[in-house]
Amino acid sequence: MKSSSGRRLAAVAATASLALLTAACGGGGFDNGGSSSSAPTTEKGPVALKMLIASSGDAETNAVKAATAAWAKTSGNTVDVQVAQDIKQQLGQAFAGGTPPDIFYTDAARFPDYAKAGALYAYGDQVTKPDDFYPALKSTFTYDNKFYCAPKDFSTIALQINNKAWKAAGLTDGDIPTTWDQLHAVAKKLTTGKQTGLAIGDTRDRIDAFMVQAGGGLTSKDGATITATAPENVQALEFVKSMLADGSAKFPKELDAGWAGEAFGKGIAAMAMEGNWIKGSQKNDYPDVDYQVAELPAGPKGKGTLLFTQCWGIAAKSTHQAASVDLVNSLTAVDQQLAAATAYGVMPSRTSAKAQYEQKFPEDKAFVAGGEYGVGPVNKPGFDSVLADLDTGLQGLKTGDPKAILASFQKNAEAALK
């Protein structure tokens, strides 16, 4: 997990890349624009596509290469898959230089910046069965009422429980928390001299889940209004603060851990709030830890979690848009999404793949369930520094003032929108 200074440097670098991108657009967007009503460029004969991905490792890289090779064999085209060292920086430079790859991973947090700058081709209405994607994922990649790009896969936050610690505290399956009060109660029972009840990340991409459960959020549902100071958000932060204050929950830095998954794996925390990526960490680094996964407890207004996702972006300047859309349709087909899930642990973005995925990976049901009610990131361009400042405020939540933290974000966010 990055330090606050690391986040600020990353935000500065990303902002610099975006400035180059926007300058390259000349204020009017790329020639192909970003309109979903624009016809894709057509190609004669076989085409050579360039793809840029941000891979989690060899398993993902090999799976993507195998999937693109299968499409290439059928279509007669070719795909050159390149693995980025820093995809934000490399895409920013490619956009600014006017030579972007045809197709590339686009993170949800970066999507609105790219869409606003005119860097993306809006092909959402050309995807096979676009309504088959989880609504929240489709909404995440919608900008200015246009569905731009097909969600590649997704992750959600759920609750991990150490079964040995749970049993030692005298808890049973009937005690798995389904409400905030129950979460606080079991976290207290699980807290001992050497073990805290719950490890939770100290940034918005964990803590915001409580805002969703309280019926709040940093923006309105349509994203048009900043709603950080809403009483539901204050209530959520007050609850998290209460757990931090009595020690039943702690941030990773208080546990000498880089992230909550590390604290959980080492047995320093009996529970953790992390995404399905924790599976790989536990398998590789802490294989002897016996644990289970449950949905996050519901708040005053019901269930809530956070969604993390990427889409298959296609460059507005690509001269191979038709072939790129055809490739995306192949990559997002149910059988291909299930193959990717088996290869490197992602969850399919299509609802029609849910039953088959759960049958194959029953231990992931809590994560998959979040796809129905999870919420994506703040979908606003130019918000990097504003969100980084919010994280800084949240890191001081244990002794801080929730109202002041939210008021600061409200002020900064409204200024960023002007």
What's the CATH C level of the largest domain?
Answer: Alpha Beta
The structure class reads alpha/beta
N- to C-terminal separation? 32 Å
What is the mean pLDDT? Answer: 90
- CATH homology-level superfamily of the largest domain: Periplasmic binding protein-like II
User: How many individual helices?
Assistant: 17
Contiguous runs where pLDDT drops below 50 for at least 5 residues: 1-37
Radius of gyration: 22 Å
Order of helices and strands: HEHEHEHHEEEHHEHHEHEHEEHHHHHH
What's the total number of strands? 11
Tell me the helix content. Answer: 40-55%
CATH architecture of the largest domain: 3-Layer(aba) Sandwich
CATH topology of the largest domain: D-Maltodextrin-Binding Protein, domain 2
Largest sheet, in brief, is: 9 strands, mixed
How much of the sequence is in beta strands? 5-15%
Overview in brief:
With 418 residues, the chain is an alpha/beta fold.
Attribute tags:
2 domains; 418 residues; alpha/beta; 9-stranded mixed sheet; 44% helix; D-Maltodextrin-Binding Protein, domain 2; 17 helices
Structure commentary:
By secondary structure, the chain is α/β, with parallel strands linked by helices. The protein has two domains: 19-155 and 308-372, D-Maltodextrin-Binding Protein, domain 2, CATH 3.40.190.10; 156-306 and 380-417, 3-Layer(aba) Sandwich (D-Maltodextrin-Binding Protein, domain 2). The protein has helices spanning 4-25, 58-75, 87-97, 111-117, 135-140, 163-168, 180-190, 204-213, 231-246, 260-265, 278-285, 321-331, 334-344, 354-360, 365-369, 384-394, 402-417; strands spanning 48-53, 78-83, 103-107, 142-143, 146-147, 151-162, 196-199, 249-250, 269-275, 291-294, 307-314. Strands 1, 2, 3, 6, 7, 8, 9, 10 and 11 form a nine-stranded mixed sheet that branches. The two termini are 32 Å apart. Mean pLDDT is 90; it is low at 1-37.
